[in-house]
Design brief:
Blueprint: E1 2-10, E2 13-20, E3 29-38, H1 40-46, E4 64-72, E5 90-93, E6 96-97, H2 103-106, E7 118-119, E8 139-142, E9 149-151, H3 156-159, H4 162-175, E10 182-186, H5 190-201, E11 206-211, H6 214-222, E12 227-230, H7 237-246, E13 254-259, H8 265-273, E14 274-282, H9 296-301, E15 306-309, H10 315-326, E16 336-340, H11 344-352, E17 357-358, E18 361-362, E19 365-369, E20 379-380
Parallel strand pairs: 2-20, 10-11, 10-13, 11-12, 13-14, 14-15, 16-19
Antiparallel strand pairs: 1-2, 3-4, 3-8, 3-19, 4-5, 5-9, 6-7, 17-18
Helix pairs in contact: 1-11, 4-5, 4-10, 7-8
């Protein structure tokens, strides 16, 4: 059996190739990929900005994966909640696999910084034995021991948001939001809206969402934003800062500011939105896209501020997100635009360039449907 996959052979260059679908192995499984979200990180890797600056090309990207189990290994396998897995089950993967044995896993209880961690969607292709380890493929092989998956009956277009939602939940947990806090979120993409949602659900009294365009901000209000600031209408950064301050008690600034845009200039602007003794949370820079100017006296000491970074998410954040997605009422599906695997390059390029539209629609989250790729468009590997 063959699987068509979109291979990122070098920065800004995709090829559709065909691979043999492997056997699952004793403790592995093979997924038929139903949807894979296009993450902002994929856009950065497309442009050549890789995590840690490593050369990871060629690779099959894609770590926001929902699929149906096509084949299981000989050993009984269970999901994160301890439920036995069977062929035909729909699962969502948690892409980062920690070793469970290192200092960060065992002592610090910080598995996102595991020194032996491997991540699906970030593994270079081995020229001697290429593996289907990314979600931009019709089939995907989970061959890393203890690969965490979550069984679900939720609709694909809804549950494909689980990974970005888990990031928002982790960010809010790190911020330790107090009940009634005023929160500002920079960026109205999937991470920004999911962070705004998580902040509201965790006690924020007012959520201010800064981004655009108008249709994204309208969806942001559906998911918890009380105040929205459209950067296309308010083009001056100082004016945006003033609007945020005017929406806070005494005009002092937000208690917590989350940077979810991944744009370096947003950081100085966000720090100016922060009240004294407030907390600034950096969520959007999973890859190195440049430096910023930081004044230690003005931004740190004088403000008495706390600055926190958020790296990925843990299985418990995925589980919390799944519980949110299982609750009826909110139209998570409206955040997702589904498209074919043939459109992988156009989709990733749109995300990389910060485009707000694809296929004539405003996009928040693009998800590829690998099963709808062209049958004859691939190269044989």
């Amino acid at each position: 059996m063959k699987s068509t996959a979109a291979v990122l052979t070098a920065p800004q260059r995709f090829e559709l190739r065909q691979f043999d679908v492997p056997e699952p192995g004793e403790n592995g499984l093979v997924l038929r990929v139903e949807a894979c979200g296009v993450c902002g990180t994929d856009g950065h890797i497309f442009k050549g900005h890789t995590p840690g600056g490593r050369n990871i090309y060629p690779l099959i990207p894609g770590h926001e994966v929902v699929g149906t189990i096509s084949a299981l290994g000989s050993q009984e396998m269970r999901d994160v909640e301890g439920r036995t897995l069977r062929e035909g089950d729909r699962v969502v993967i948690s892409p980062g696999v920690a070793c469970g044995n290192c200092y960060f896993c065992n002592i610090l209880k910080s598995p996102t910084k595991c020194v032996n961690k491997k991540g699906y969607g970030f593994l270079p292709l081995d020229p001697d034995k290429p593996e289907l380890t990314g979600g931009y493929s019709e089939y995907m092989h989970l061959m890393i021991p203890r690969s965490p998956v979550f069984r679900t009956d939720l609709d694909v277009q809804r549950v494909v948001l689980l990974e970005p939602l888990s990031i928002g939940i982790h960010a809010v947990e790190r911020a330790r939001i107090e009940p009634g806090s005023v929160v500002a979120v920079q960026g109205s993409g999937a991470i920004g809206i999911m962070t705004a949602f998580a902040a509201k659900r965790n006690g924020a009294g007012k959520v201010i969402l800064i981004g655009g365009p108008a249709k994204r901000l309208e969806l942001g209000r559906t998911f918890g934003a009380d105040v929205t600031i459209d950067i296309a209408e308010v083009t001056d950064a100082d004016e945006r800062v003033q609007l945020v301050r005017e929406a806070t008690p005494g005009g002092y600034g937000a208690d917590v500011v989350f940077e979810c845009s991944g744009v370096p200039p947003a950081i100085g602007e966000g720090l100016a939105m922060l009240r004294p003794s407030g907390t600034y949370v950096e969520v959007g820079h999973f890859t190195d896209v440049g430096d910023i100017k930081l004044n230690p006296h003005r931004h740190l000491v004088l403000l008495n501020s706390t600055i926190i970074g958020v790296w990925a998410s843990e299985d418990r954040h995925f589980l919390a997100g799944l519980r949110y997605l299982e609750q009826p009422g909110l139209p998570f599906e409206k955040l997702v635009h589904m498209t074919d695997l043939d459109n992988a390059e156009a989709s990733v390029r749109a995300v990389a360039d910060g485009a707000y539209e694809l296929d004539g629609r405003t996009i928040v989250k693009v998800a590829l449907r690998p099963g709808t790729s062209s049958e004859n468009g691939g190269k044989t590997t």
